[in-house]
Structure formats: structure tokens, C-alpha cells
Amino acid sequence: MKYKFIFTLLLFILWYRVSCAQKINYLLKMSNPQSHYFEVELILEGFKQKEIEIKMPVWAPGSYLVREFSKNVNEVKAKDESNKALKSTKKAKNAWVIDNSSKSKKISISYEVYAFELSVRTSFLDLSHGFVSGSGVFMYVSGSQNLPGTLEIAPYKDFKKITTALPKSNISVEKDGSETFYFENYDQLVDCPIEIGNQVVFDFMASGVKHIVAMYGEANFDIDKLKKDMPKVIEAETAVFGENPNKEYVFIIHNVVNGQGGLEHMNSTTLSVNRWTYSGSNYINFLNLVAHEYFHLWNVKRFRPIELGPFNYDQENYTNLLWVMEGFTSYYDELIMRRIGLVSPEEFVSKIQSTVNYVEGTVGARVQSLAHSSFDAWIKGYRPNENSSNTTMTYYSRGQVIAAIFDVMIVSKYNGKKGLDDFMRYVYTKYAKELKRGITDQEFKKELEDFLGQDLTPFYVKYIEGTEIPPYNEYFSKVGVKVNYSGSKKPSFGATLKQEGGKVLVKNIRSGSSAEKAGLSVNDEIIACDGYRVDQSACESYINSMAEGQETELLISRDDIVFTLLMTIYSFEKPQFSFTISTDDTTKNLFSYWLR
Ligand SMILES: [Zn+2]
Asked: Which of these, 69, 234, 510, 553, has the minimum number of CB atoms within 10 Å of its CB?
């Protein structure tokens, strides 16, 4: 009797818990694709609080810019289980509060999202397809981001396929083309972009993982070739980390006129590429991009800066470490091309030379440190203006150069037995797998110091937190690459021009240049040099043929007022380097190991 009572009580508690459990279900519809509006319904059950706050993220993780996605949302409406309207009040640019003082069992919140920006981090809908970048479409319930839930997608009647890395829900009932997916938490929901339409879908196995590729847009891809080459990239990268943590991985590829790059996710990526990228010399650019985004599944999505997770969707998430996340990834996307045999060791060294010369030849590299470049990605890197080359240096390129330096330092320290791979595998295993958390700036530096057995403080002060030029030869000669300084003083104009509507306009002006000293400004129209009317190429060749100290009179139009400026030509020395492979008996093996 007693046991029967306890058993009944337990059953009651279980029933009570299940019936009162909070449930979140999203319904995504797109009945009018030509209007570019996704219709979203957020159905909440078991939410007892008097006021329910829902919010739209202001940014998409991986793309460090506040994009204010709520600008695409019109009204937010709410009703209870008996279809009675509940008051919805807008509280902030991206937040609404739903009045739940009547303690409704079930609340339905609905809104429409305008989606007409096709990029890897924004959403798009038209009659040809729909693309959902979750953080700009799905709102979250404040304080409930850790709840699991479902997403039912009802595609437009002519869209036959849905491709996403979200797992199918086991309660999935497929009716009229609808499919239901499951997510463990809000982060997972918005980390899985969704392609809905009539995309070409194929799959292949690589590193024991099933890879699904969804191709949107006409393009010159060859599926058999991709099935052969993409696994090479994947296997080479899996070998770096020693394991591939996914069971399934999805590539969503948008083939468009002007490809813009990719965005990384835990077990998927979206790539935006030029539709004719799949043949000739452009093909390597495609595989480069695949290598870049795929590498991120370890570097930044799992091994990550401590600041990047759990994400604060309301504001900027500052980190100094994007030079590791993006710079090291850029280094590897090229190194992997070497490892799969698409680039020779000589070509790889020449690519490093080009990157070094781009970095050191940019005035901004002497102004903005790597750490600041990362921290200010939100307001500078992602918001370039006409003065950016004077004030910023991208953490992609400079980070790539620093990664190369660390690689050759490790290769030489371990005498060709270890390289940057070993360090990456070590920090990935320790932080992502064992500690299950991000890494701090100090920890990253300490781990590198322990690995290299040397104090890196001076290196950090000069090249990571400072803006000095590293002694390239000191590092690269250890693996048999001589680096000579090849910069020299040359007469220099210091302005870049563009031709627009028949006018020659100033595009950029280098700080301290002849152009700046003469008083030239961006957007000025140059009509004539020394009385000769010029187009862009005539203007450039006229000025570029001048010697140091020579003067020229420029006829300028600024805001439709015409006047002359006298410009004296000054010389400028752009720091440049030449890299030459010159291995000897001691460095031959190290070079071969480095670029194996
Ligand atoms: Zn990246």
C-alpha cells in the first residue's frame, strides 16, 4: 500500500514536471517570397513569469559588427491559447515585453522579418530561395537561451529542399514539405544557417564524417571533382588536430556574381563564391575558402577566446585574440594548399613574402597593433573608410605572418620534429576538450612560452601589442629562408585615384605624403597637371615620372569650386622584403618539415 502510494506520487511528480516544463517551438513560414518577408511564430508553453522579454541579437557570431537585425522586424504580436491578444510593448531597440499577467499556458508570439541581404551573415528570401542566418531571424526569450526546443520550417510551395546542420526532431511530422528540427539551446539554433529552395545537394565522406554540400545558384562546379578535392582539405585539417569532432558537416554554398567569403559554424559553414570560381586558377581560391572556414570548426568555434562564448547577443563581444583565430586560420588555409600539393614550397614562400610586403608596406601597420586590430574589429576592421589604410592593419594578414613566425620558431626549436600543428593540437585538446572553456590572452601567451621554452614578453611588446617590424631574417633563416630588406626611397605621390563619370577623383591619401602636404583631399577632382588636362592614367604617369623636389601645379575642383594647388614631390620608403630559399645541410630538413 505504502509503495503504491509512493509510486503514484512519483508518477504525479513526473507528470507535473513534464506538463509544466517550459517549451519553445519556432515556426518559420515564407508564404510570399517575393515580399522578402519570413514569418516567424514563437510558441511558448509553461512560462509563468508575468512579463516575458524577447530579444533579437544585434550581431552574428563570427562577423564582428553590430548589425541591428531588429531593424528588419515590423510589429511583434502576441496571443494566448484562446487567441486573446496579449499586450506587446517595445522596450529597447531589440527587445519587446509580452504581458503574461493572465499566466497563459501557451503564448504565441509572431513577427515578420524583412530578408533581402544575401550574405553569409544576413538573411535572404525571394522566389529563387530562402537563406536564414539565425541570429537575424529568431528572437530569444531572455533568460531561457539554454532551453532546448524545436523549429518547424514550412517552405514556400515551390521550394522542395531544406539544408541545415540542425538535427531532425524525432517528433518530426513531415506534412506539405514541412520539416521539424531540434536544437539543444539558442546558440545551436542560430549557429546552424538554413538553405531552403531547390539547391543541388550532394554528399561525401571524409575523415569518417558525412559532409553534405548544398549549392545555390548557377555555377561551373563539377560534383565529381569537388567530391575528390574537398575531402583532401578536410583530411589534411583533421590531421592537424588529430580528430574531427563532428558526425555530420554541412556546406551551404551561394554561387553569385561577386562572392564575399564565408562564415564559420560548429558543424556547418556558408560560403559565398563567384559562380565561375570552379575552374582554372580560380579553383584554388575556392579550396582556400573551404580550408579557411573548415579550419574554424576547431580554431574559434571550439578552441576560442574566453570572451567568445557564451555570446552576449546584445552588444559587442571584445577580444584581443582575433589575430590567433583569424590570422592563424589564414596561415593554415594556405599551408593546407601546400600540404595537398596544390602549391609548391617555392610558391608558398612567395605567398608569405607577398603577405609580409602587404603588411609592412601599409602605413596603418605602424599605427595599429595586432591586439588593437582585434579589439576594434567592431568599429574599424568591419567599418573601413577612406583613411583606414593609414590607421589600421588587418589581423588576418598580420596574424598570418605572426603564425608563420611561430611555426618556424617551433620547427627549429624541436629540430624538425614538431611544428605549429603540435601546439594547436595541444591547446585545442586542453581548452576545448578538457577544460571546456575559452582561453585568456595571458594563458595563450603562457602556453606558447612553455611550448617554445622562452619568454615571449619582448616579442609581444614589439609585434603583438606594438607595431614594430619583426626581424624576419632572424626567424626564417632558421628554416633556410633568407630574408633581405629590399625597400628604398622613391619619389612618391601618395594618393590613389579613381575615374568616375569622366572625372579623376582622389580615393585615398597616405599620411605624410606629397599629396597630403600639398593640401589634396579625398574626393577632390584633379582636372589638370601643369595645365595639361588629364584622365586617371595620364595623371598617374605624369606625377609618377617626377623626381624628388620637383613641383607641379594641380587644377582641382572641390565641391564645384575650382582652384590650384602646388605640390612638391617628396620621397617615401616603403618597407619591403625579399624571401629566398637557401637551405644548407643544417636547414634542409627543417625546411622540408616546415613545408611538408
Ligand atoms: Zn575566418
From this structure: 553
Q: Cα(328) to centroid of ligand 1, in Å?
A: 9
The per-residue pLDDT for range 543-583, each reduced to its tens digit, is 999 999 999 999 999 999 999 999 999 999 999 999 999 99
Angle between helices 420-427 and 441-452 (to 10 degrees): 140
Q: Within this chain, do residues 360 and 372 fall inside the same structural domain, yes or no? A: yes
Distance 399 CA to ligand 1 centre (A): 11
Cα 239 to averaged position of ligand 1 atoms, centre (Å)? 19
In the listed set 292, 324, 340, which residue is the last one of a domain according to the structure? 292
**Same domain, residue pair 527 and 402:** no
Is 229 a domain residue?
Answer: yes
| Residues by chain with Cβ below 5 Å of ion ligand 1 | 326
When pLDDT is cut at 50, 70 and 90, the band that residue 243 belongs to is very high
Between the CA of 376 and the centroid of ligand 1 the distance, in Å, is: 16
User: Ligand 1 centroid to 321 CA: how many Å?
Assistant: 13
Q: What is the CATH number of the domain that holds 266?
A: 1.10.390.10
Q: Are residues 337 and 215 both part of a single domain?
A: no
pLDDT of residue 170: 77
pLDDT greater than 80 at residue 17: no
Taking CA atoms, 328 is separated from 41, 63, 424, 437, 442, in Å, by 41, 17, 10, 19, 18
**Distance of CA 257 to CAs 213, 214, 225, 260, Å?**
20, 18, 22, 10
Residue 567 in domain: yes
Q: Domain of residue 411: give its range.
A: 298-480+592-596
Res. 19 pLDDT band, cuts 50 70 90 = very low
- β-bridge mates for residue 571, sequence order: 491
Distance 56 CA to ligand 1 centre (A): 24
Looking at residue 380, what is its pLDDT? 97
CATH number of the domain where residue 508 is located: 2.30.42.10
Grid coordinates given for 13: 511528480
**In angstroms, rounded to a whole number, what is the distance separating the alpha carbons of residues 497 and 491?**
17
Spacing, Cα 396 to ligand 1 middle (Å):
8
How far away, in angstroms, is 100 Cα from ligand 1 center? 42
Whole-number Å distance, alpha carbon 581 to ligand 1 midpoint, is 29
For residues 421 and 338, membership in a common domain is answered with yes
* Residue where a domain terminates, one of 235, 261, 292: 292
Q: What is the pLDDT of residues 167-194, one digit of tens each?
A: 998 765 667 789 999 999 999 999 999 9
Distance (Å) from CA 330 to ligand 1 centroid: 7
Note whether 43 and 156 are same-domain residues. yes
Domain count within the chain: 4
For the entire predicted model, the pTM comes to 0.94
**What is the 108 CA–ligand 1 centroid distance (Å)?**
37
DSSP string, 517-582: HHT--TT-EEEEETTEE--HHHHHHHHHTPPTT-EEEEEEEETTEEEEEEEE-EEEE---EEEEE-
Co-location of 71 and 174 in the same domain = yes
User: What is the band of 21 on the pLDDT scale with cuts at 50, 70, 90?
Assistant: confident
User: How many angstroms does the Cα of residue 122 sit away from the middle of ligand 1?
Assistant: 16
